[in-house]
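INTERNAL AUDIT FORM
Audit reference: QA-55
Scope: verify that the stored structure record matches its stored sequence.
Auditor: D.O.
Record contents follow.
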Amino acid sequence: LGLQKIKNIYVLFYDGYPNKFVLDKVGFDNKKIRKLLIDNGFKLYDDIYSQCWKTTQSMSAFFDVDKTANETPRAILTGSNPALRFLRQRGYKTHYFLNGYLLSGSGRPLEGDYYFPQPAKNIRIEDVLWHNIKKGFFSQAPTSFSSCTAAEWVKTKQDLLRTAPRGPFFMYAHSGRPGHTVWNPNFREENSIEVKKFIEKLKIANEEIEKDILLLKEQKDAIIIVAGDHGAYLLADSTDCDEKGLNALHLLDRYGTMLAIKWPEDYRSSIDLNILQDVFLEVMIYLTEEEGLTRFKCDGETKVQGSFSVIPPGAIKNSLIQVGVDKGQNLFEASNSRLLGKDGQ
């Protein structure tokens, strides 16, 4: 297996960015950012969902293209995986813009060439724990790397985007914006308030996306992925029904996300991209021209991490709904029907 093409690769994630159908449901007009992406050569993949609704699991599965999962989720998403090792061995310099939550607890030394924020040194564990407890965290993860403000993080990321380094170059940046609403019903505000707060964060995220895209405008032959990692949980009524009452939009709210990709002109599709965890596999097939890698395509069966939901494991498989009132239907067709009122609700 060898590289047949060498392209700069930008993987730009925005945490909890919702699927188009869910944004339509809550009445948010996202035409501006969609037009920006299309005008800059991106293909929009509206029929896309993640197998996981938690960032660490979603992103580790995103990079675990051969489905070996021999490392912890954080180790995989920070570079300890066969795909990124393959690229590094062939000259790629790998850059990661994450956060302390994603960078900490990988269980092994970081393998990439550059990380931001950088590992913090000489922090006493009791100081870390006390700092986090005051913020509502109960681990050392969020502050075991050098702290920075959201503005500093975005500026540092965009400074690197602006330099347009020569290849072969790989970058994975995971913005904390827009983030998702509060999942825990014990701390969640009334749903309209949660949605209103989220929309304000989404507007800020869109400003970040717009600048990121414009900074990469001259990257004519790069692979640029703009995506969310899971849903934002804007439709809280999925916690107010039993499993039989779940519908397509409930599931899309948790698993559906945003995906847009700018491919080089010679790109030809090998996989129908409906599952987020197939995207980097498609990138590797394109770079290696090895169609045999399609054997690693996901079955798209969704997983459950944590509680506070009646959604069971395996609620979606290969885009088909396996539970609830829309069982047997295509996730996106059923969601669109509900938006158009064809479901009678």
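Auditor finding: record pair retrieved intact. The chain has a mean pLDDT of 88.
Action required: none
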